[in-house]
Amino acid sequence: MAFAGQKITAAQFNRLQPKKYSAVGTGTLTGPLSNADVTGATITLTTETANAMYTVWCTWDFNMTGASSGTETGRLNLDGANLSPLTTNADPDNGGRGTVPQNYNGTIATPGSHTFKLVASPLTGQQVQNVNCSIIVEITEVV
After folding, report:
1. How far apart are CA 30 and CA 36, in angstroms?
2. Number of structural domains the chain divides into
3. What is the pairing mode between strands 81-82 and 72-78?
4. Which end of the chain, N or C, is less packed with Cβ atoms under 10 Å?
5. CB 126, CB 34: distance < 8 Å
6. Would you state the pLDDT for residue 64?
7. How confident is the model at residue 92, as a pLDDT?
8. Please, where are the H alpha helices in the chain?
9. Is residue 1 situated within a structural domain?
10. Distant-in-sequence, close-in-space partners of 69: CB < 8 Å, separation ≥ 6
11. Are 87 and 73 in contact (CB under 8 A)?
12. What pLDDT is recorded for position 51?
């Protein structure tokens, strides 16, 4: 935090700008799986201050490959913890497909290295087309 009369350093000034990171998945996930990593859709970054704010935009590409009556889900995982809300997709028949977005906002309490990644839970007869899954993370830190 800057105080009256304090000179702001270059490092403090740089933190005023939001930083953006992005990644796109690779390969395919075939169910049944539970909260499996979407390969390639991972971002590891370092925050410099406590209580850095994040905004994350995510997209999953779900594909029905056979008979299935369940709902595929995806979510953001931050530092090993699966976050809510879920993204969901339920296609009624073989060959059905859905590209589903979700977004997240929050605060990271401690400075240091943090990992954001997409995870998904396709059921039998379902796939996640990782090559069409993406994640964008924006970090805003206080001076």
Report:
1. 10
2. 1
3. antiparallel
4. N
5. no
6. 86
7. 67
8. 10-15
9. no
10. none
11. yes
12. 94
The closest of 65, 62, 80 to 121, measured between CA atoms, is 62
Looking up tokens 């933190």, which residue turns up?
A: 15
Asked if the structure places residue 5 within a domain, the reply is: no
d(CA 63, CA 132): 11
Q: What's the one-letter identity of residue 105?
A: N
82 lies in some domain? yes
Q: Is residue 9 part of a domain?
A: no
| Angle 44-131-87 from CA coordinates, rounded to 5° | 75
Instruction: Give the integer Cα–Cα distance in Å for 72 and 120.
Output: 8
Residue-by-residue pLDDT tens, the chain, 143 positions: 556 777 777 666 666 778 999 999 999 999 999 999 999 999 999 999 999 999 999 999 998 887 766 888 999 999 999 999 999 888 766 777 889 999 999 999 999 999 999 999 998 888 999 999 999 999 998 76
Residue 48 lies in domain: 19-140
Instruction: Kindly list the distances between the CA atom of residue 101 and the CA atoms of 31, 72, 74, 136, in Å, as whole numbers in the listed order.
Output: 20, 13, 10, 11
Beta strands in the chain, from DSSP E residues, in sequence order:
19-24, 28-30, 36-47, 52-64, 72-78, 81-82, 87-89, 97-108, 112-121, 126-129, 134-140
